[in-house]
Amino acid sequence: MMTIPPVVRPAKPFDLELVKVTKRFGSFVANDQISLKVPAGTFHALLGENGAGKSTLVKCIMGFHQAEEGDILVHGHSREINSPYDAYQFGIGMVYQHFTLVPAMTVAENLVLSRPDTPGIINWKDEMARLREFMQTAPFKMDLDTPASELAAGQKQKVEILKQLYLDSKFLILDEPTSVLTPSEADEVLGLIRDKVKAGDLSVLLITHKFREVFGFCDEITVLRRGQFAGHGLVKDLTADDMAAMMMGGQRETKIVPKAVRERGPAGLEIKGLCANKDNGVPALTNLNLTVHEGEVVGIAGVSGNGQRELVEVLAGQRPATGGELVVHGASYHGTRAETAEHGFFLLPEEPLRNACVPQMSVAENIAFRSFDRPPMTRAGCLVSRAAIRSFAQDLITRFSVKTRSPETPIGDLSGGNVQRAVLARELGPGTARVLIAANPCFGLDFAAVESIHGQITEARNRGVAVLLVSEDLDELLALADRLLVISHGEFVYETTPAQADIKTIGHHMAGH
Amino acid sequence: MTSESIGWWGVVLGILAGAVRGGTPFLLVSLGECLTEKSGKINLGLEGTLLMGAMSAYAVSYKTGSPWAGVAAAGATGALMGALHALLVSRPKVNDIAAGIAMLIFGTGCAFFLSKPYIQPSAPQLPAVALGGWSQVAQVQAALRISPLFFLGVAVAFALQWFFRATRWGMHVRAVGDSPAAARAMGISVGRTRFLAIMAGSALGGIGGAHLTLFYPGAWTEAISSGQGLMAVALVIFARWNPVQCLWASLLFGGAQAVGPSLQAVGISTGYYLWNASPYILTLLVMVLTCSRKRTLVGAPGALGSPS
Ligand SMILES: Nc1ncnc2c1ncn2[C@@H]1O[C@H](COP(=O)(O)OP(=O)(O)OP(=O)(O)O)[C@@H](O)[C@H]1O
Ligand SMILES: [Mg+2]
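That is the input. Now the predicted structure with magnesium ion docked in place:
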């Protein structure tokens, strides 16, 4: 009989293998007998459509979920991992798809807190000295005293990655770590991680929807489809089409909606001298002026944290403006429910689970938020009909292929990408939109979904909707926008059109020079 | 100097003494509530816990002859009440506010029921710490006879401040209260942390009750608490969930309570009842003034009142 060695935190990467892992939620099988092997010191990609079960599988490795069947072999030994603390003991760490920073704590506090072996009494002087020393060697710089709540999405993601490096994990799981980073930031982050893998310091399991990253950084892939194993191979033997075929199960045709040539319509949305503050009262936007005409897509490019979040929040009515005015279709706009309905003012915010959903309410209810209080979903003026909400939602769920077990499932249980689709279905589905604000609409979506959303936005534009697209993905902006503005430190600093755009010049303005 | 000659100074002195004397239960209960809320749960039942603590402290002090045993009993009773509340709110779909109100009524009822044999006899009291030896004036000496539990409260306030900032457990409590999902991802047990925080908070609430029966007013009556347990909730908001600010806020509330009696002592009884209402008016004012549509409260635990 082989004895199982006691657990010591490893100093080197190790082989990790999953054998026939099955995970169910009630009667729903999220992972069905999945096997996967990541040899020590390799960069492995886990691919699959939205809702394929990728996050669920890696959460089983982390002990966040417990697999019902199957084995997890760490360095050749079958191990029970019952909590993220156990995973830490094995040297396994993960950057989750949704942020796991404590908002009220500073970056330093978050880093120290994440270490399970933090002493009972924390000597902050020593800890800060240690953190500063770590920051010297860290791939990106962060101010240690900023509260996490004041960080933009991209910065939060960097702190999450720093956290794992600080913990000195030897097996790093990254669940769509780059969805909130700009392509150059993503390359920088993954490049640094890749260097560590090459140096024999780390193994990585990366979940991503971007083929560019697979080809740029990964050695091997495993593909899931609807909770089942759908393929495996070395990156150097495969093409993007092969991978897509494994993910979707068979061939598919791409359909790109062409931008119709059309006259610029009257002004749809006008932003006049808009000012707003950040949470801490510091100005985030200063005197923004912008007109979006009907039938055009205006793109806003910028490095995250330059006022985009605040701009979208003001437009959504989530944040008060400290100055200026919004004008929609010639009338002053204040974001009341009557006005949004009258002007067809629709919005896809970033982090939709937080900004556009009530997680505990059902998918159907969330989809009906815009219109549940009007006929045909109400009768006799005030009685809400559940049946009507259900059938309304069911129709949109099918049309936007939201993968949910039933319309009654709480929306918080959906996979990241499917939450996005559900919100999209609500905002674009009824076709009554006349002004559309979209903030990073394709974060975390698989390539088929990205294509379909880009199609929807272009179609909306062709129909005459005024679209404001705020995005950190320059490729997306260049593909969709008619005009492009660069925002830096809360001001528009540059305007161009995709036809004349020069990536270098744009990058220069984004960096704030 | 005779006692009459201090005149209006008597009012000031009365209010200051009242701030310390009447502020002590506020202080202990609000620190308990602060700890509870930092973990993301609300305990409205602390008023019931306070009464249970007051009752058991008095009873045990009477039976054993040791007031300190009474204080210990109050803490233990509080912890038990807390455990019950924590157990209730850890169930899915149990709302903390509703459970808290139930615990409030339960605790009050239990205390009244169990206290019947202890209404008459007088129990040994906690020894006062006399800081007024330097003065010849009787009022000054009386005002500076301070409850040992006040010093306990002050120590706990600073200790709690330090606990939240510089201990692993304290950071766990904050993490759980601000973002349970993040805490879970770090392997912190949300349920256990909240359970312990609620229990410890409740124990402090119970000890606050011991001050009422074993120091001031110093006997058991059913009207012994005048809502300190509930006002402490407002006080915690006023103090921005900061333990040391809980101390200042408690003194303010305690002082407000003493305005009416102090004025009466110098013969001014107009508006006596109005002055007695000042702590409640202060509570309302605090609530109105600290609410703002524009900014979220700094220091408020992000997941306060969310299901675990
Ligand atoms: N806690 C849960 N309870 C019930 N069902 C769940 C839960 N978590 C996930 N699911 C379901 O399991 C399936 C797989 O979800 P998972 O999050 O693993 O997908 P994913 O591959 O990570 O997708 P994405 O790319 O969109 O993030 C989904 O259909 C989802 O609705
Ligand atoms: Mg996922």
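Chain A has a mean pLDDT of 88.
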